[in-house]
Amino acid sequence: MLRSLRFLRACLLVAASVAPALAIAQGAAGVGAAGVAASKSHQARPEPPQETGFLNRKVELHGETYRFVVYLPEEWRRDDHKLWPIILTLHGRGERGSEGMWQTQIGLPQAVRDHPDRWPFVIVMPQCPLPSVWTDPEMLDLAIAALDQEAAEFHGDPERTYLTGLSLGGYGAWELARTFPHRWAAVVVVASGVFWSYAPERWQQVATLPAEYAHALGRTPIWLFHGADDPVILSRQSELMFEALKASGGHVRFWLYQGIKHDCWTRAYGEPDLPRWLLAHHAAPPAAPGPIVAELPSGADRQIIPFHPPAIKLPPAVLDSLAGEYNDKNGNIVNTIYRQGEQLYQKNLQGEVAELAAETPSVFFYVNGSSTTRLTFERDAQGRITALVLQDDRHEERWEKRPTTEPR
Asked: What does the pLDDT look like over 240-249, one tens digit per residue?
């Protein structure tokens, strides 16, 4: 009995000594698991993919906050550290404001929406507030501040930094080009000049002012666009700058659109060659100041772009072969083509009639319409007309020719 009591007391002593140690070990294990869980919960989560497209942005300058927009191509990635070509674009008078978005409706932003595949650029679109104008010193500071901020965050390439502006924005573009001539790999000015509409006294310097800008710009590549019938900013402004740049040995292109008024920017930014022309130019690296390096041939080039191509005259028999009714995919008559005298006409589903003119025996354009729209008649192997295709800068539609019923 006594031996049993001694054994029980020994067991109780062992249990008393082991229990605290076990509790400590379990507590330590519990703290360790919680700590691991806590550390996992506080690990840096991978950043979500960067949004692309048109993004709302803000920039602080001199105590003021300005809203604007930046465009990132769909392929842009934050983690690949790839340098991207970057464009600063300045809008016109009608897009001024403080909401930060109205400037994205026309010009280069519109062209990007129509053909994003053509524009692999980061594009900075600051907005000039009312009643300011882009040539105000603080507005030029705003444009540069927005460009600097976005270039730093979105990997803008200093050797492929481009400048453009339309109308009022063209006034600002000329000022930025003159002030920072070595920053821009190339400059595009649309429907603008250096004689500001709100400063008519500048015309008193017509004999010297264009040459001053040309001298400051040096060999920076410039492409000018203007409508020949522009009543707002006369095409003479671009003519004067072209001649001054040409005389100074600069790299300058000038395209004058016949039959177009102030809004030549839709045509200009829609030119497929424009983004390719920009990308063909690189500025000298910042570490090695020097002249702009132009990869395209140097010199001056001036072209007059007709509103319509020259029309050719086709025999009535050829016009008759094009005439007929054309159906959509559901068999509905969408267009009727007919000849009247020596002219070809189109009547659409709403009964509207438009005169057509031939660019080639198969390609026609609207006499009173956009010069970018074309109607192409398709033929089979035997030369018979099978379909009519409408193409403009944005889309294509195709209509099958309805078979004619031969009289018995």
From this structure: 999 999 999 9
